[in-house]
Description:
The structure is a homodimer.
Chain A: H1 3-13, E1 21-23, E2 30-35, E3 38-48, H2 60-77, E4 81-91, H3 97-114, E5 117-125, E6 130-140, E7 155-158, H4 164-172, H5 180-191, H6 197-204, E8 209-214, H7 219-230, E9 233-236, H8 243-252, H9 256-262, E10 269-273, H10 278-289, E11 294-300, E12 305-308, E13 314-316, H11 322-326
Parallel strand pairs in A: 4-5, 9-12
Antiparallel strand pairs in A: 1-2, 2-3, 3-6, 4-6, 7-10, 7-11, 8-10, 9-11, 12-13
Amino acid sequence: MNEDALIAALAEIVAPARSRVLIGIGDDAAVWQPSRSNRSVVSTDALVEGVHFDPAWMTWREIGARALEANLSDIAAMGARPVLATIALGVPSGTAHESLLDLYRGIAASAARADCTIAGGDVTRTPVVTLAITAVGEVRATSLKLRTGAKKGDAIVTTGKLGGSRAGLCVLRDRVALEGERRDWALQAYRAPVARLAEGRWLGASTSVHAMMDLSDGLSSDLARMCARSGVGAVLDALPICHAAIETAHALGVSPETFALAGGEEYELLAAVDGRAYGHLAARFRVRFGRELFKVGSFRAENGIVLRGGDGLETPVVRTGWDSLESE
Amino acid sequence: MNEDALIAALAEIVAPARSRVLIGIGDDAAVWQPSRSNRSVVSTDALVEGVHFDPAWMTWREIGARALEANLSDIAAMGARPVLATIALGVPSGTAHESLLDLYRGIAASAARADCTIAGGDVTRTPVVTLAITAVGEVRATSLKLRTGAKKGDAIVTTGKLGGSRAGLCVLRDRVALEGERRDWALQAYRAPVARLAEGRWLGASTSVHAMMDLSDGLSSDLARMCARSGVGAVLDALPICHAAIETAHALGVSPETFALAGGEEYELLAAVDGRAYGHLAARFRVRFGRELFKVGSFRAENGIVLRGGDGLETPVVRTGWDSLESE
């Protein structure tokens, strides 16, 4: 049973829906209705030392900021703005308090940037440092975006280039030696990702955006989830891959597309945009944010995700995480 | 630095308050304001295998239910009713999926009882099973109860007898051999505590209740927190101790009061009730719930907590957790 299957089985057990909780397990965040025109969203993410981060690769301050950003990214993916977050911190006995204070300094810096209050938490003893963060956000009912809603003909868009975070991890694991700007870009992407909060709210407010989620597990996994929830398939024909990932891929002898498809932890947003509205929306996005809203492909009726090459040939995209690639 | 001091230091780092978040770190739950007359509350608790529970001592189903009840108890302590909860589950690789499904069955049963929707979560790999649960509740602004607000002359009340959970742990650790009803009571108190949700909402709705919290860490620790937050001291003169705890105390050669003061994980509510209103409130409580609302002492202006014996002599209550007693 893989993680998705286990989560589905667990979700089924706790399934009974309740009127004021509109969206339960299965989207980036849960949604409930505090009043008629407003929606509250809540998202929980856990980070575990040795699984999700390694103190040898980044400062405690970066670890803290990154943990909150991962959560804020789920809030962004709903089109919402953050209100508050709570933190369940697990620490092994003997952990230097200065490390924990630095961890919290990172969380505080990220929270301040996002205008999100850290409003409570719990500290427990655990064998390794664990951080479970729950973020609460708010969104107008009309701006709420879910993973369902992608339609055939919709453009598949991302708010940034992909692969940087995974390239950074390759640098840290000494699998590749990048230099200069590309090295900085990759390390920054891995150590200091930033949730696309402003972009999420902006896209959420557009009626041309039919579905949205964040890219925490890599495009192949996350797009498959959006396709499954929306009942559509997808053709990818223009993956935006950052230079650092391209160089890393070449050094490792794998295709750059692998970095875009199987990488993860980048927290760019993935959205389904009305195909006819994409051009106009992308132009406005460029004006507003000074960056591209990349069109990476299109949704179609036929199930499954394929990569279409310049020759028009379609290759099925196997939904795979990075770890299975690493062990090949 | 003990847990409270560390939490205070961490809280200071993330301190900046924001208008819509009314209560941050330091109460049972954080509070924010989704609309003028309503308050939302959110509470996070983490449970760690080997620290907070041991699968040798209870079923996975019980572990799940207990974890959610601990969180719901924080919601109850605010006078609120639960809306939803999210779960961050950490599992070691190789954990039997049937155990996890049972864990969730326990959570689901507790959630159904409390009319609380399990609305999302996260599953990660961890060295031992960890469960971080965040519960969200709602309460009318006028019914919200905090730890601040206890006044000199207020009665100190609890919604039940104390010490049962700790007696159950002593049974499970083979430190004492209880029999029959007392054994059942103690094991039930430890394995299957029930958050006092109805009691919390009922007490929250009363203007005679000035402050409220739940007794998760034992009366001596929790009452000290309420005293500190309210700027008062306390005299304890009538600790309600269950028979199982009294028998266990005698068998271990410690005073029964120890079980009431240093025990924990019972999730009874602790409240400050207007001294003149206590009699009437307790009578109504008895009618409503068929149980006693125990008056265990009174708040007073003078700082510190004392235990007053039948002879009128006052003994300072040292704020101590159970673990330090165990190692004596």
